[in-house]
Amino acid sequence: MSQLIQDTPLIVAGRRFASRLLVGTGKYRDFDETAAAIEASAADVVTFAVRRTNLGQNPDEPNLLDAISPSRYTLLPNTAGCYTAKDAVRTCKLARELLDGHNLVKLEVLGDEKTLYPNVVETLAAAETLVNDGFDVMVYTSDDPIVAKELEKRGCCAVMPLGSLIGSGNGLLNPATLALIIEHAEVPVLVDAGIGMASDAALAMEMGCDGVLMNSAIAHARHPVMMAHAMRKAIEAGREGFLAERMPRRQSASPSSPFAGRINA
Amino acid sequence: MRLLEICFREAAMQIQLNGEPSQLDGEQTLAQLVDSLGLTGRRIAIEVNEEIVPRSLHAQTRLNDGDSVEIVHAIGGG
Question: Could you report the predicted ipTM of this complex, rounded to two decimals?
Fold first, then answer.
């Protein structure tokens, strides 16, 4: 056991998290399934959306924050569905009021409904406004190393490039640019969006990502709770693989068993 | 009767509530509106005219004709 490298926790804006897996709360059948999957994932950070309350229908309907307790998890309100910096900033302020002053947010400003691709112009503007207003901003962005650096310069506490389109499950489509972002970042880099399977999550961690945020890969699996557990292990395996540092690749074979002493020698 | 009608008409207010027009019977505070919607004690956040109104100020915030009110809560999302 002494051969194991002691990992450091994930630290985002001074907050320490034991788990490097961050999860969403969308697309589940009900709150029971949401809570069970999040439990199985062992995630510390849980993201949610902010929407208009249905008025006059059923004021007693269960609330997400009853299922996902703010005292147990670090809640990460997101600005999903916002297409302008203005709407994203308003949503973050509403979320801060909702959570009694909690200032950690996931900023995402989208370009269009078909791709949900980040609008980096609006994202940069919103990031600047939010940081100046005292928010700790984890930012969803494209896998562009220059934009990632610009967001970092504006004071974002974590940069979260997409692996592929939100909800697509297509995995890491451009590992080369992701590697560039990781190489140059001085804040944590988390892959956000696109994870489809456990191997995608493991690969992101093997490459040196600080964490992975996912929702659909778990919620839309046939068995979400089991997939949540699989993702937990994938993140841990990928992280340990990264810390252990991979063997060198070589073009030719190299036998694992010695040549010497073969019975036909 | 006529005087009462006039008073009532003057007191009635129209606001935008979560994007829909909504009629209020006379002057109300934000706390009274929240109560009339059955939302007292619920985990919500409120904006009036695109400005946050902290929970501690709901009781003293009077609504005005034409105000735009947004009431939001947390839902599942990624």
Answer: 0.88
